[in-house]
Amino acid sequence: MEAKMTMKKRYLYEALSGYAFALPFIASISIFLIGPLIYAFIISFKEFFLNPEASRWVGFTNYTKLFSDPTVKRALLNTTLYSLGVVPTQLIIALILALIVNSDIKGKTFFRVAYYIPTVTSTVAVSVIFLYLFKADGLVNALLAKFGIQGPTWFNDVRFALPSIMMMAIWSSVGNYMVIFLAGLQDIPSELYEAAEVDGANKFQRFFKITLPMLRPIVFFNLVMSLIGTFQVFDQAYVVSQGTGGPLDATMTVVLNIYRTGFRDFNMGYASAMAFVLFVIILILTLIQRKLFKEETY
């Protein structure tokens, strides 16, 4: 009997110790994440201009207004086009780079570092660099002039502003996905390749029959993370357009529009509604991808 009581006290002590260690994290996430999320969801149903006392309940007005707001529609279109251009391109390049640095080439450690460095570089710094590279008399147009091509004013041209940001995003983030692909490639048993080679499979057959199927979970993870990142693009569009989303809303993204609505127009209720609609869009797209890849949660 005493032994059972001792065991119960021990389990109770261990449980209380575990909760005590977790308490700082639980408190911080409740105060700085869960609490603000709940409050933002509440004010999304209000006309809220920074003064809680002057706010008033408007129900679903903020949400219904989104469907008739031309700026919201343009921002969503730009963000969708941005995602469609960036996600597949950067994942394909990342996989190719991972295959290269996973091979037996000389200096592969150097190339791994070189490809990854842009990922840890400040987004603002990268944006400033690209502003200089793509300006009217910048390096890109100077190189095009060598071939007799008149380069555009990239970030000030409605046709080229968004594609320019896409190129910037691909260059600065491809290294991150390359490292994840590389980890997946190194986790594939070499025996599979040896057996396939004995059976007469060539490099392309080994890639499509072994590498890609074995990388399926990695591809799914990278695809989801890349899609979330592109739908939350803000830094590059803000720096390039100086916060205006110009020219003519060509670089206006959903998150930039949320920022402008909340911190320039101080319409926090409407901005919160935009943020939760964006959350729903990302959630739906993630669930669709999981269904397509037949990923299961355990």
Automatic annotation (TrEMBL):
Membrane topology annotation: Multi-pass membrane protein
InterPro entries (alphabetical): ABC_transporter_permease, MetI-like, MetI-like_sf
GO cellular component, as recorded: plasma membrane
Keywords: Cell membrane, Membrane, Transmembrane, Transmembrane helix, Transport
Subcellular location per the Swiss-Prot or TrEMBL entry: Cell membrane
ABC transmembrane type-1 domain boundaries: 76-289
Transmembrane stretches, start-end: 21-42, 81-101, 113-134, 160-183, 214-234, 268-288
Record-linked Gene3D superfamilies: MetI-like (1.10.3720.10)
Top-rank lineage group of the source organism: Bacteria
GO biological process terms, semicolon-separated: transmembrane transport
Chief subcellular location: membrane
Similarity comment text for this entry: Belongs to the binding-protein-dependent transport system permease family.
Protein name (database record): Carbohydrate ABC transporter membrane protein 1, CUT1 family
